[in-house]
Design a protein that fits this description.
The chain has about 375 residues and is an alpha/beta fold. It contains 13 helices and twelve strands. It binds adenosine-5'-triphosphate. It is found in: Cell membrane.
């Protein structure tokens, strides 16, 4: 393995589920890379394909799933990997933390026994060594009196402690990638913050990369390095978290930022995005967000846009109208229907809005980005 090799490279990932009613295109053309020690946030409405993408990386999809594209972990292809080869990666190199700890913890065994077994599954060591490792790993996730707690059953732990025990389970084999699927949603705010803090400490200590799937934009803002926004089964915007939050270049991201409670919105009114997410069985032609987009034009409905480079440090967006958005004086108002009347036909609004400037010539925009990139050290 070369040092420049990415920890994870996902290229053109697609996941289809054939059902009686038709084929569900749950994940479509997803490509991204993850570096060692990087924290990537994946956000998007329910059903946008976040969990299915991460299950594909873990090799945890049901047999009915049709997977296409490539997922390379340290250069090894995971798609199509089965049996022992997959087991070796799963739980050892890549570990997963779920929303409900009881999906990983068995109620009939002590927490310490389960941790020790998880360690022994990947290491040929005596039981005593595995037990010591279990206690050490409980200590690592901040559980007080870990030697006493290790002898207890999951139901004797509080919700926050169970979540920590599950993190202990995930890290016991020193994974290089931790996938956390809504790991704190069920916890109260203070405990959430502590659990997230623990995850970041583990990243600092072990250098593991973290993929954090969450609805909570507050979590994303406070924790991740890079964010990836999903809609209709694909990535519609990605970039450094501050850049994406401060200068979103896909109207869906603007809508998402204004519709979900998060720290940056304190004192502001929430504005839901009108309409419903698309059916993944029957996607609209062109951009999947076009039926709900206040900036839609006829071109948006003819072909699905590529993920276009829209700024420095890998900022990209799947929107042919991103320059219009970039130059819009008040992007947040795009979704503030009540302030500009109820919008039945977003195309009419875009056409009637005189504040929308004409887009710069695309070549000029590319040149401007290239110049900015050159200036960045
Ligand atoms: N086994 C399956 N068979 C058929 N469709 C499925 C299956 N698993 C998931 N899907 C569909 O795939 C789509 C994407 O689901 P996914 O769970 O990835 O969404 P999500 O963005 O993680 O949502 P949430 O935030 O609610 O977990 C959904 O439409 C879902 O119904």
């Amino acid at each position: 393995m070369t040092t420049s090799e990415k920890l994870l490279t996902v290229e053109g990932l697609g996941v289809d589920f054939p059902t009686e009613d038709g084929v569900v295109h749950a994940v479509r053309g997803v490509s991204f890379e993850l570096d060692r020690g990087e924290v990537l946030g994946i956000v998007g409405e329910s059903g946008s394909g976040k969990s299915v993408s991460s299950s594909a990386i873990m090799g945890l999809l049901p047999k009915t799933a049709k997977v296409s594209g490539s997922i390379a972990f340290k250069g090894t292809e995971i798609v199509g990997l089965k049996g022992r080869a997959l087991e070796k990666i799963r739980g050892n190199d890549i570990a997963m933390i779920f929303q409900d700890p009881m999906t990983s913890l068995n109620p009939v065994y002590t927490v310490g026994w389960q941790l020790a077994e998880a360690y022994r599954a990947h290491h040929a060591v005596p039981k005593k060594t595995a037990w010591e490792k279990a206690v050490a790993s409980l200590e690592q996730v901040g559980i007080p009196q870990p030697d006493r707690r290790a002898k207890q059953y999951p139901h004797e732990f509080s919700g926050g402690m169970r979540q920590r025990a599950m993190i202990a389970m995930a890290i016991i084999n020193d994974p290089e990638l931790i996938i956390a699927d809504e790991p704190t949603t069920a916890l109260d705010v203070t405990v959430q913050a502590q659990v997230l803090e623990t995850l970041l400490e583990i990243r600092n200590l072990t250098g593991a990369a973290i993929m954090m799937i969450t609805h909570d934009l507050g979590v994303v803002a406070g924790m991740v390095d890079r964010v990836q926004v999903m809609y209709g089964g694909t990535v519609v915007e990605s970039g450094q978290v501050n850049t994406v939050f401060e200068s979103p270049r896909m109207p869906y991201t603007v809508g998402l930022l204004g519709s979900i409670p998060h720290a940056g919105l304190i004192g502001q009114r929430l504005t839901p995005i009108k309409g419903a997410p698309p059916s993944l069985m029957n996607l609209p032609p062109g951009c999947a967000f076009s039926p709900r987009c206040p900036l839609v034009t006829d071109d948006c409905t003819t072909a699905e846009p590529e993920l276009l480079r829209v700024g420095v440090d890998g900022h990209s967006a799947r929107c042919i109208r991103w320059e219009h958005l970039a130059q819009h004086p008040e992007p947040k108002k795009l979704f503030a229907h009540s302030e500009i009347g109820t919008v039945e036909n977003p195309a009419e609004l875009a056409a009637a809005d005189p504040s929308l400037p004409v887009a710069e010539d695309l070549a000029a925009v590319e040149a401007r980005i290239a110049a900015e990139e050159e200036k960045t050290p």
